[in-house]
Design brief:
heterodimer, A: mainly alpha, MetI-like fold, 2 domains, 14 helices, 0% strand, B: eight-stranded mixed sheet, 21% strand, binds adenosine-5'-triphosphate, binds iron/sulfur cluster, binds magnesium ion, transmembrane helix (chain A), dipeptide transmembrane transporter activity (chain A), cell membrane (chain A)
Chain lengths: 311, 684
Amino acid sequence: MRSTTWWLARRLALAVLVVVGAATVAFGALQLVPGDPVHVMMGGAAPSEEVYERTRHELGYDQPLPVRYGEFLGQLLRGDLGQSYQLHQPVADVIGSQLWPTVQLALAAFGLAFVVAAALAVTTAGRRSGWRRVASAAELLMISTPGFWVGVLLLTFFSFRLHLFPVAGGDSLAGLVLPAATLAIGLIGVFAQVMREGLERALEQPFVLSARARGTGETAVRLRHALRHALIPMVTLSGWIVGSLLGGAVLIETIFSREGLGRITATAIAGRDLPLVTGVAVVAATIFALLNIAVDLLYRVIDPRMKEVVR
Amino acid sequence: MADSDPLLAVDDLRVSFATRGGPLAAVRGVSFTLAAGECLAIVGESGSGKSVTARALVGLVGAGAAVSARRLELAGQDLLALGERDWRRVRGRRVGLVLQDALSSLDPVRTVGAEIAETLGNHRLVPRSARPARAVELLAEASVPEPALRARQRPFELSGGLRQRALIASALAGEPAVLLADEPTTALDVSVQAQILDLLAARRADGVAILLISHDLAVVGRLADRVAVMYAGTIVEEGGVDDLLRSPRHPYTRELLAAVPSAHARGTRLAVHRDAAAAPAVAAPDAAGCRYAARCPLAEDRCRMADPPAIDVGHPAPGAGLSADVPRPAAVDLGLPAVEKGPPAAAAGPARGGGTAAAAVAHRAWCWRIDEPWPAPPAGPARGRVQHADDVVIEVDTVWKSFRGPDGSRRPAVRGVSFQLRVGETVGLLGESGSGKSTTAEMVLGLLEPDEGAVLLRGRPWSRLGESARRPDRHRIQLVPQDPLGAFDPRYTVERLIGEALRAPGRRAAARQRGRIVELLGLVGLDASVLPRRATQLSGGQRQRVAIARALAPEPDVLVCDEPVSALDVSIQAQILDVFADVQDALGVAMLFISHDLGVIYHTCDRVLVMRDGELLEQGDVERVLRAPAHDYTRALLAAVPRLGPATGQVPAGSGAGDAAPADGLGVGSNVGFGVGSGVGPRR
Ligand SMILES: Nc1ncnc2c1ncn2[C@@H]1O[C@H](COP(=O)(O)OP(=O)(O)OP(=O)(O)O)[C@@H](O)[C@H]1O
Ligand code: SF4
Ligand SMILES: [Mg+2]
């Protein structure tokens, strides 16, 4: 038990480092972006010299870089992400209000992708049937199709033609269906192939032969024994999964005009809203780091042997 | 056996696989019967079709396999007609299967209890709520201590022996009438092995019919009533266990028996063939003639033309071979302690029944030249093993080593061990798993620092040196691992693997050293044809040869061999042991040889160290220690060995027979490996 606590403490310390690192990178990158942040802050209008200088001073842009970096870190550690230039609201509030819709979207897409992929993999692994060929072809298609294109297609078909789901926006469950499905499609193909490979490897293991020799039926062998082993490679994919979900959210939220972190980020980048961009980077890094820890804990649940290995 | 209906009847079973290179006939016409309370053993080398035969009996040979038989019946029910659903009712309920490696045969992410309960659930034997309790009961029946605790643990948390018991418990949970045990004891320590055999013997006494698959003849001798020897998918000889092991008639059976390492063959070769590329055990399905012809020293034209007929060998005179009096030609004598072959339960089949059983079993061999005298295995060039010089290469001086356990406390792994290793000498390190053998070896290799004490290399300090001080001498001590596959980079060719050890890293550098590499391969009986292959493209025996060649590349003074043959079957093991002997004769390296197999130690070593719980219990000349052990533990170890006392007469008089022990009747310790049967007496 002591080792687990110790392990967790180390992982959390590491996570803090990662977040600070991400913030630093975002801070540095924004210094390199051409254009004057003070102008952005002041909106389109050409300000007078005096007003400009005052704003510049207020924002701290007249200080040397190291001082500004120090202040930035200090604020960050206090949990203060600063003010958005464009929205004139605290960054933390903006992100706070936009986080939930994105999390909803990501979870829904992940759940959908997982269930569909698991069904595809379990029904086709180790079988040379026509159904498997169809499934494989569909997966390849899903992997290679751009998400926005699928999104537009779904939107046209289900919303404009069939009026089944709302065209855009909406916090309702119905409003979640199309965006989540679009986001899921990019994942299903990869999930299904990884799981199928894991299943096929597991099905060749002696313990599966043992299980069958006990009279266990095929479905039970797959669900009870093999599937869990197939999840292990999925866990190693978790970084890619979170990245795809967050990255995909930017696109999907824009297409379906949904609220969310993705859309805010897109606007913030376009408008050079430095504090907001940095804030999103910090939040994303935090999510990544925490999820990674969660995933490693999950690893130990799925595969108890890991307790011996992971320290 | 035809007198009454057997429990299991197999007639002309054939299994072939569709492979890329065309059909592969893994089993070609195997027939046998099995009665309740009887144990039939199938022995044969790797790839001979033993496992496929067993799997055919539960309908699990796999997709792409074609199974046919004239008759395949279980208690009168035709198994060939079963659909998948019906098969499921047979598996686990009427026929249980136990596989070799319990670690991989139990689902690593599920608890042992859940695995056992699965059988119960599949056949609705016990209501759901009662299953966990029943699983605990079954573990207890399989003599697992603390069954309730074990049921909650996962396979990797159990020792090898407990795991194997748990696996057996899961196979027996449905109370099947037939148990197929596929190498149930391979890779287990001798004492654990003995316990597992006891467990199986008890089940047989309850009337369970056991099909025991093994390549270990000693195990077979301890449990089986009858033996069928398989080669290349066919049975080449069958008979009562005593008959067959004492007077093997088929050349292959004789080769197998001769391959068992033990004292009789000290200084002689074990394998008939030196090169790794002995004929493939599996040929095209339609090839006529004796499959063994390519390897058989007696082969003649007739053998290649037509399948040899079954020839009834007849029975030895009653009472013959039961004691030390018969060093008869080609005879093998069994010294069998411990396991009581109690009479089967009341309803047991006719094939057994106390002392009369053996007489009822036909002994047959499929061979044209059954009565030819068996040529002596090539007697090794008289190995002057005694004449090693007296200089000490390695001196281990009272080393101690402890590790931190999971609970944080320090656990001693090696406690005050001292020994010496001299030029050209082989010292065996004997002990069960966890006895500190590998830790000792790692200290000799300079991979671990002793907490106390010291290791000296040629009189100079070797332990407690900085790595830079040690580096120039590192090449002097090389390791031959148990599993070379794990030690080799899978992307490298053999040429590159050995080139690396010659300090020629990289493909091109290795190619420049090709001459030397081929020379090294020659030492271990391989030729240049393996150069471009990767480790995964080699057989187990070839791989171990490459590992030895690689260890020899930097011209070491010492080879540390960590269970180098325990993953190999008898025939391959025999070849590799011969390679070690050749290498030592040619190069005079000293060897520290770790093994849990007494026979192997006896055959290869000059001196032996016996370890338990990190302590060196005794050491001395191998003959002395294994024949007249001074320590109780050594005696117990010796008693636990399922013993196949090989024949003095197997190697025709003159070569190697001379060192057989006299029939002194002094008991277990004195008849190790010689198996003159002394002190043990008739088995039944
Ligand atoms: N599923 C399969 N597909 C193709 N060939 C197979 C398959 N299973 C087994 N074989 C082949 O059938 C032959 C017999 O294999 P089998 O496993 O029965 O050998 P074995 O006697 O049990 O050997 P071992 O002692 O190594 O376990 C081998 O040549 C093997 O390669
Ligand atoms: S039939 Fe011929 S080749 Fe086959 S085992 Fe007998 S003697 Fe050897
Ligand atoms: Mg096998």
